[in-house]
Amino acid sequence: MRNLYHYTSLETLALIVYNKTICFNNLLNVDDIEEAETEDMDKFGRFLYTSCWTDDDEESIPLWNLYTQNMHGVRIRLPKFPFKKYYYKKGEFFLSQDIETYINIERFYNENKLSIVADGPQLVKIEYTNDQNKLFPRVRNESIDGVLQEYLKAQSLESLGNKNFEVSYSFKDLGKFKRENWKFQKEWRYIISAAPMGLQECNPPSLEKQQELIRRLENKTLEPPCRQIFLEIAETALENMEVVFGPKMSEAEKIMAKGIMNQYCPKSKCRESSLRIK
Fold it and tell me: Based on C-alpha coordinates, what's the Rg of the chain?
């Protein structure tokens, strides 16, 4: 698989090529409203952001209908992992080693709203299933011995004595499963998980900061750190972008689409839909 496809409006196309970014929506805001739900932590998917695509190179009438208004939008083709790369040295922004990443760590550090693992985003193929354990995964793994509240009140690790405390929250099954009704989408998606604590706020690590992070994760009414996340698109990916006009786009809409692409993405390609729909 070399390319992925995204159906969207003409207005969103303009924002993508003008800003040179791809939007990741919070899992609370995707079309399947169940996706943020978990077995044990309510809507824990609110700490996950996704951008949804398909690998089907044949035009899909259901996707045209679902994601464009009366088939008046566009289908975008971009290379797999079209994101701009960044390079950081060990010690920058509290990094423990030199890294190459698609995440603009400096920007997220300065915004100080959330923390993202530098090896994101992850690209996954959606599995369609009616298995409730997959649709509503358990995310909280714990070995607490009944001392969670005691841990959150502790002044130091030594004050806990020999009591064992270990708690973790797993994102590994979130955002990767949908009911079989959605199988027609043939969906792939990029996924970013985010902790609700800014990079400046959580570094350098300390007991107090770990306690605060756990309090936020355990707070089931806590709002997501932001509604959307944007990743920059690499220039080489923009040059290889293809835009297919919706089957019912007017000539005026096509002229606008061509004008947008000529101005902001002049090496890209535009073409007519292969579908003929009245």
Answer: 22
Left if phi > 0, otherwise alpha if psi is -120 to 50, otherwise beta: which for 192? beta
Domain assignment present for 278: no
Please choose, from the candidates 49, 45, 41, 48, the residue with its C-alpha nearest in 3D space to the C-alpha of residue 218.
41
Spatial separation of the C-alpha atoms in residues 125 and 107, rounded to whole Å: 29
Q: Can you tell me the distance from the alpha carbon of 6 to that of 66, in angstroms, rounded to the nearest whole number? A: 12
**Token reading at 46:** 């609110």
Give CA angle at 42 (166, 136), nearest 5°.
Answer: 90
- Cα separation, 261 vs 14, in Å, equals 8
Question: What's the domain range around 207?
Answer: 3-271
In sequence order, the β-bridge partners of residue 228 are 25
Q: What is the pLDDT of residues 177-213, one digit of tens each?
A: 999 999 999 999 999 999 999 999 998 989 899 999 9
Pairing of strands 115-116, 177-178: unpaired
How many domains, the chain? 1
Q: Is 276 exposed, middle or buried (0-12, 13-18, 19+ CB in 10 A)?
A: exposed
Query: Over the stretch 182-192, which tens digit does the pLDDT of each residue have?
Result: 999 999 999 99
Note whether 188 and 55 are within 8 A (CB).
yes
- Encoded tokens for 5: 């496809």
pTM for this entry: 0.94
Residue 67 belongs to what H/E stretch?
helix 61-67
Indicate whether 212 belongs to any domain: yes
Asked whether 5 and 76 are in contact (CB, 8 A), the reply is yes
